[in-house]
Automatic annotation (TrEMBL):
Location of the Aminotransferase-like plant mobile domain: 100-184
Organism: Glycine soja
Protein name, as recorded: Aminotransferase-like plant mobile domain-containing protein
Domain of life: Eukaryota
GO biological process, one term: meristem maintenance
Length: 188
C-alpha cells in the first residue's frame, strides 16, 4: 500500500460476518481513517460523553423551531440533461469507463427526493466541533467509503488537476473536451 495512504489509514484484520447473518465469520481486512478510537473502555472525549447523556426530544416538531430554513439549492435532474447524457453515452461510454468517470456521470441522472424533516433531523445532531453527528449511542459521520459506495466515486488516486501520464489518458481528455465544446456549440 502507498506510504501516504498508510499515514492516514489503519488496516486491521478481524473476523466479520454478513449484516444479515447468513454466513460464517470470515477473516477480512478493514480500512479505517485515522484518528480512530482504540477502545470503548478507554477515556471518551468531552463532546462524546456529553452526547451519551443527551435526551432525544419526545416529538420531532421542526415547524415549532424559531429558525426558518429554505432549501433553494435542492435541484432535480433536468429532462434535457438526462437526454444529453444518454446521447453521449452511446459514443463515449468506453472513454468514460477508461478514465473512471462513467459511474459518476450516470449518477448525475438520478433525482434524489428531498425530505426536509430528515435534513432538519440530521442538522439537529451535527457537532461543528468534531464534524460528526452526535447520537445517544455515540458519534457518527459520513466516510470516504460512504462517498465511494453511494456515489460511485474513487477515493484514492491522483488529484483531479494532476497531469495525465499516459498517451491514452491524454487522448481520452481530448475527446471529452471536444464533446463538451460540441455541446456548447449546439446550445447556441
Amino acid at each position: 500500500m502507498d506510504e501516504s495512504l498508510l499515514s492516514m489509514m489503519e488496516v486491521r484484520e478481524d473476523l466479520m460476518v454478513s449484516p444479515i447473518g447468513d454466513s460464517e465469520p470470515a477473516l477480512r481486512s478493514a480500512y479505517f481513517l485515522k484518528p480512530i478510537a482504540k477502545s470503548l473502555d478507554g477515556p471518551v472525549s468531552k463532546v462524546l460523553s456529553s452526547s451519551m447523556t443527551m435526551s432525544l426530544p419526545p416529538v420531532f416538531e421542526p415547524k415549532d423551531w424559531p429558525l426558518v430554513i429554505h432549501f433553494d439549492w435542492w435541484r432535480h435532474t433536468k429532462k434535457k440533461w438526462v437526454e444529453w447524457v444518454d446521447a453521449l453515452q452511446l459514443r463515449y461510454k468506453s472513454v468514460w469507463k477508461k478514465v473512471g468517470i462513467f459511474e459518476a456521470i450516470m449518477s448525475t441522472k438520478c433525482s434524489i427526493a428531498k425530505d426536509q424533516n430528515l435534513c432538519f433531523g440530521i442538522a439537529e445532531k451535527w457537532c461543528a466541533e468534531t464534524n460528526t453527528l452526535l447520537f445517544p449511542w455515540g458519534k457518527a459521520t459520513i466516510t470516504l467509503e460512504d462517498v465511494m459506495v453511494l456515489g460511485g466515486y474513487p477515493v484514492v488516486g491522483d488529484p483531479v488537476f494532476a497531469p495525465l501520464q499516459s498517451h491514452e489518458m491524454r487522448e481520452a481528455e481530448k475527446k471529452l473536451i471536444l464533446a463538451r465544446e460540441q455541446h456548447f456549440k449546439a446550445m447556441k
